[in-house]
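Students often ask why we bother encoding 3D structure as a string. The short answer is that it lets us treat folding as translation between two languages. Here is a chain of 245 residues written in the first language.
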Amino acid sequence: MTTTQILVVLVAGAIASLTKSTTGMGYPMVVLPVLALFIDVAEAIVIVAAPNLFLNAKLVRSLREHRSSSPTLKPFIIGATIGAILGALALPFLSEVLLRVVLIVAIVVFLINRLRPQSVEIGDARAMQLAGPVGGVAGVFQGAAGISGPIVTPWFLSVVSQRDVYIFSIATTFAVTGLAQLIVFLLQGAFTWASFGVAAALIPIAIVIFPAGAIVRERISLVAFERIVLVLLACSAISLLVKLV
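And here it is in the second language, the structure alphabet:
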């Protein structure tokens, strides 16, 4: 990568860090397309893994006082862990195209329900019953396609009413799956000196930008916050659709 290309990636990393620290999601969505302009997608995924895990860990630590306020989190993560193992084992037998189509449909259905005047809500008892299975589905997608956000985000947006509890929940889920992903990359020897250098350069940027995200999050209304998350979900669906055509 040239100096100009690295500068573009670092700027994208700053924007992604602000998005992530504000909403709890969006880092790979911003950085991966930019990196993919200059290097192989597989190498881009490896680079993003470390700074994204770092930001998720920072969010979990900064919002840890909410750990008892998300009752569905534990069964969701247990289900996601089991699902990730099954998804990885089933990878040779699953169609990536089918997985992406299912994710797009799930996002569209969720967005339609959320934008209706009277959306369908999930009761507390029902949420506890569904947390494990839905987490399992998210895990299967993570293990088989490396994507779980389109399942994780709508779930916690539906069952959690407090902004910081929602961010803590999705950050914890992403941190667990992200740590597993990073360990696999390290065991596989996926990092080159170049990719390690870019990943290492993105982390200080995340450290500097992270406090700004917390400030922005506190200053926007709950309605505005949810709209931003819905827009990010819609962008995620568009990204998945683009990869299909």
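Translate back mentally: The two ends are 28 Å apart (CA to CA). Keep this in mind for the problem set.
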